[in-house]
Amino acid sequence: xxxxxxxxxxxxxxxxxxxxxxxxxxxxxxxxxxxxxxxxxxxxxxxxxxxxxxxxxxxxxxxxxxxxxxxxxxxxxxxxxxxxxxxxxxxxxxxxxxxxxxxxxxxxxxxxxxxxxxxxxxxxxxxxxxxxxxxxxxxxxxxxxxxxxxxxxxxxxxxxxxxxxxxxxxxxxxxxxxxxxxxxxxxxxxxxxxxxxxxxxxxxxxxxxxxxxxxxxxxxxxxxx
Length: 225
Hints:
- This protein has helices at about 15-25, 35-50, 60-65, 75-85, 125-130, 145-150, 165-175, 195-210, and strands at about 5-10, 30-35, 55-60, 70-75, 95-100, 135-140, 155-160, 180-185.
- It is built from 8 helices and 8 strands.
- About 45% of the residues are buried.
- The chain is an alpha/beta fold.
- The protein has a single domain (about 5-210), classed as Rossmann fold.
- The strands form 2 sheets. A 6-stranded parallel beta sheet has the order 3-2-1-4-5-6, sandwiched between helices. A two-stranded parallel sheet has the order 7-8.
- The model has no long low-confidence stretch (mean pLDDT about 95).
């Protein structure tokens, strides 16, 4: 049976951009939202852009989490903990969660170029505490801008993948590879998400200073895959 990828918070620019890319790559995508009707509308809009045959469904976050094999968390940091507590009893054993969350100060009314201090060390480590046993976690996709993910042009960006679980790291890296132009880079342990998440604030600042929308990162000297 083909795997199902749930994008929780998938009606936002980042979530819908990832849904667009993975549906174009032939993945079965479940768009989750607090509002099921809005999720279904987003799914319909994406099918109209990609193909009527694209496998995209819209539903509420709880239904998407319960049905998926891989879940991608794209909700704002300010709402992530509450959502994860709501979903804790719904995950299937063996589910992989990919956390894209960045604790930007903008989520609480501050500057988008700053990150908040998180007690656990990073948004990803907070997520780890809120997942049940049997659900593995990778932190990835923080630095792919929503503007770059819309459409089908190549995305010129490396994606650091951090995890303490090799299966989760491999799954996240594989999904990165389905986005043309993007390259997964092994970012090491989950605790390194503390560094990776802060890069998003740096890139936002670069976008503002250079008046662009798709600043990304590339690492040199690494073997190409």
